[in-house]
Each structure stands twice: as structure tokens, then as C-alpha cells.
Predict the 3D structure of the following.
Amino acid sequence: MNDFENELRSALRREEPPSGFAARVVARTGAHAAPRRSGWIAAAIAACLLLSIGGGFEYRQYRGRKAKRELLLALNIAGSKLNIVQKKVSDLSRRTLYE
Amino acid sequence: MARSAVGDPSAFACIVREHQGMVFSIAYHFLRDRWLAEELAQEVFLHLYKNLRAIQSPSHLLYWLRKVTGHRCIDQARRQKLRPLLSLTEYLERAPEPASLGPVSDPLLAGVLQRLVARLPERSRMIVILRYQEDLEPAEIAEMLDIPLGTVKSNLHRSLALLRARLERERKGTTR
């Protein structure tokens, strides 16, 4: 290594950055972590929305099934009542014919 | 390192403090702008923070930091051309930066050399900085910058000749 290279080495020696450098970097890592946190929040909100949409859909299905069951029950009741009425009407007409 | 990899800010701050001089100096000697150098150094450490799990050992960390800083400096210089450099007369009219003072035999000569290095083409400049600031062997520089060893050696040889010639010219210019 000659004198010129030694001068070059001296000229290019390491220097420390302005004070507070490490603290500024660490602060920026926090700033970088924030979007990650907000990403989690966004994911949680999206999950809630999906659940509520899915839940709403399922609830509507449930109500539809319940209404169908109630309608079938009402038709059954109405049918049996009609049968009774029909039977009474036929009994009455038979009795009228024999008398 | 393991502690900082799991998000311990104080452990990461220790890593930053240990290597900040190296990263900042490579950037500063390359860009010759303290603000830009700090910005670039911060970006390098933020990139490290995101990639801490990939770092296997302290020597790997050192290699990683030098490599990323070197490549980022070259990219930065290619994106943004440096401001016009001062002549030696203009340089003498300005007070030297306090950070330039230190255990150098001739602070003025150090300033001139730093300025001359900053005028080298991007790749040659980084080779000179890694060789004389970081004391790296040409083979290590070649691996770090992904270029052939022969290119590093010839580049170093040409850069030294150019720096000598320019320094000589500057000296003659001031003695007139």
C-alpha cells in the first residue's frame, strides 16, 4: 500500500451519522409496523362483514324454511277441517235421502 | 439478533448503532450529501428490519448491509444525478464540514480526495469506497457487486490513476 492509497484510506474513513440516527430508524420501523396493524384491522372488519352477510343470508333462509313449515301446517289443518265439513255434509245429505 | 428478529426494538436499535457508521459512511462518501446519505442509510436499515429472519450470522449481517447499501447507492446515483461539484477554489472558500476533521494528516487533502472520489463513475466509485473505506479485498468486492474479479481489479487500477492525475491537476491549479 503506497502513500496515495493511505491518504485515500484516511479520506474515506468511517464517519458517524448525525446524532439520534438509530432512534429515527427505530421510530420509522414503528411507522412501518402501523400499516401492518391497520392491515389486520381491515382484515378483521372484512371478516366481520363476511360473517354478518353470511349470517344474514342464513337467517333469511331459516325464516323462509319456518314460513314454509307454518304454511304446510296451516294447509294441513285447513285440509282436515274441510274433510270434517265434507263428511258432515255427506252424512246430512244421506240422512235427508233416507228420511 | 434473534431478539430483534422477533420484534424487540431495543435489540434492533443495538444493531443499528453498531453498523450505522459503516452504512452511513458508504452512502456519504458515495453521494457526498449528508441528508441523502442519512435517508439512504435509514432505508437500508428499514429493509434490514423487514428481512431480519433471513440473516444467519453477524458476518452475514455485515455482508448483507454492505451489499444492499452498495447497490442502493448506485441505483440512487443513477436515478438522480449529483449536483455540480465545486472547484478547489470554491472548496477553499467554504469551511470544511466538522465531520471531515479527524485523524487525517491533511484535512484539506482528505476533502479534495473525497470530492474527487465522488466524481468517479458510479461503479468505480463504489469499488474505491469498498476497497479503501471497508478494506475489502477485490474478490470480496466482486462478489458483493456481482461483477467479475478482473473488472474490479482493472477498475481499481484505472480509478487510482485517474484520482492521482486529477489530484495533481488540482494541486497545480491552486499553486498558480
